[in-house]
Amino acid sequence: MNSIRQRLYVYLTVSLFLVWLVLLVSAIVVSRHFVIQQFDARLKETSGQVRILSREIIDVLQYTRFGGPDDITHELVNPTPMQIYRHGILVIQSRGAPSFPFPAGTGFKDVVIDGEQWRALYEYDSDYDTWVINGQRLSELHEPLYTFVFEIIWPIFVALPVVFLCIYVSVRSGTALFKNVTQEIQSRAHDKLDLIATDTVPLEIKPLIVALNDLLVRLDSALTSERRFTDNAAHELRTPLAALKTEVQVARRGARSEETVEMLDRILVRVKSAAHLVTQLLDLSRVNPNAVESRFHRTNLQHIVIDVLSEMADCALDRNIDLSIGDDGHHFIVGQDGLLSVLVRNLVDNAIKYTPSGGRVSVQVADCDDGVALVVADSGPGISDEVRESIYDPFFRGPKTQVAGSGLGMSIVKRIADLHKATVTLTNLKSSEGFEVRIIF
């Protein structure tokens, strides 16, 4: 049971049940003691009356004066079962009274007669050498005992639903503070590392939030250092790579053998690939929310797409790819022009790379119910479900990919889309072979 709320419900409910059980047992014990006291008081009162009555009866009968037999027993009609012994012989017994055991001492005693429990009071009258025994069945205690216990317990029974409701409301309202903190953290973007406010959090989790804030500070520092290193390294690599590319191109023009030309072409491909990687690393380092959100403004996405396609037209022609754009129009969104250009360039670059020669790549910008949609579709092979799960990971490349690249393109696209609060949808086209990326701003 990992839920604090469930644990509180269980602990409080069990505790309440145990308290209620203790109260019930205590009520039964106290009630039984009280009822027995009342029971004994009634027996005591009845016994006193019987003792006085027995003296009068014995004086009238004058057993010893008339020489009557000592074993004569007289029955009296009395609501309370009783017996009177004189000189150790039963002389008076109420009608229906049981045969109480002969007394071994005075006071109240619990006795069993014919399988029934009785409460009996034994009293001795020394003036007449008389024992007076008065008793009642203990079963007659049950009704007043149950009545008394019920009068004590029923308010608790009535209060139980109210108490359970109070527990439920209290636990729910108390743990709602935890839920608020959780929702605040869950609603954050992955790159938002602002500290969590500790003013309104419960004291019980404040140390956890403080530790989490400390982790966020260290994480922000590490990411800043990483971006700074990537930016510096990319800048340092760009110049020598550009010079190397120029030198290779010059050497290729002066090469005299086909073998040398082929070798220089392979070197040139590698240099271009390295230069492309450096460009993507620079693009990745620029995707910093704290640095670009303040530069967002209303911009025409259609114009950005046209500019990017103009730059990449030669690349499409070299691969014999039909690169097209939808109808011209004005489709405005709020964003940063430079990052949007990087996003479109990476999408189109991927589409051209993975589309076979003679294929087609189409780009379209259109208004939709949810905003403005940017759609890049190609006639390439599409992607598998296995690749789809990891396609946004930096430097990820599919296991069967034969196309040269760094694996940063879709990672950059996703980060820029998230920065613009846009949604990215990847679809393998069913009507024909191909792949589509749809981004809704």
Automatic annotation (TrEMBL):
GO terms for cellular component: plasma membrane. It is a multi-pass membrane protein. Keywords: ATP-binding, Kinase, Membrane, Nucleotide-binding, Phosphoprotein, Transferase, Transmembrane, Transmembrane helix, Two-component regulatory system. It holds the Pfam family HisKA. Its EC number is 2.7.13.3. It comes from the Bacteria. PROSITE patterns: HIS_KIN. Its main location: membrane. It is found in: Membrane. The keyword Cell wall biogenesis/degradation does not apply. The keyword ATP-binding applies. Residues 232-441 form the Histidine kinase domain. This is histidine kinase.
